[in-house]
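thread: overnight batch results

M.L. [08:02]
morning all. the overnight job finished for the chain we discussed friday. pasting input first so we're all looking at the same thing
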Amino acid sequence: MRKNSKSAQLYLVIVFAILYAPILYLMYYSFNSSGTMHGFEGFTLEWYEEVFHDTRLLIIVLNTVVIALLSSAISTILGVIGAIAIQRVRRSRPRNTLLTMNNVLIVSPDVIIGASFLIFFTMIGIKLGFTSVLLSHIAFSVPIVVLMVLPKLQEMSPTLIDAAKDLGASGWGVLTKVIIPFIRPGIFAGFFMALTYSLDDFAVTFFVTGNGYSTLSVEIYSRARQGISPSINALSTLIFLFTIILVVGYYFLSQRGKSKPKWGAQQS
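M.L. [08:03]
and the structure it wrote out:
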């Protein structure tokens, strides 16, 4: 038994080492004063200063953050509504059909989704730029939120809703005082997942960005084609650290949600 446990731990160490070694290599050479990826000559923050002094890059960072926050907030609202609607479908065949349709954007290749959005926006006359990127990110984020919220809805006992109605709660009161508090961990999970997907997305965004508008993923790709520079390493390091902050923040929020007593326990 101990041998199996040690083997599993060794396997996890090897897997994580393979996954994180390139990231640590990139972070290490973001402090290299020589400006190369071959020999570390000395410690410097020059490349980080270059990133923060690049006005165009800062605008692109702002574009990325605004798109991520807006698309995550809107897709979370739509995803919660969609999950509640799917949960209220009693017949299994229509419910499975809706779930299958919801999962299409998740399992479909990003290149196909991006090309489809490009054709769609061109046909209906939407100019490529902020609006097209925002709508695309909302579209592929909503199914993620639905999948995060549905399990929490399935865990909720119908007796909670029946009890609230018996006590005189309106439909809006049941939603805001019973359902939303119960599924709050799923809502937070969906929001953070949508946020990370939006910040990370390249393939779909590459198709729907227009001239004069860009996001970080597209900008990094454009710069990397001209050759890897330490400024790209510095920028990638900052993005990685920001992602870690998001993950840690979500972890503490989820732990805080678990520590709170449920609605039924509070009433009893």
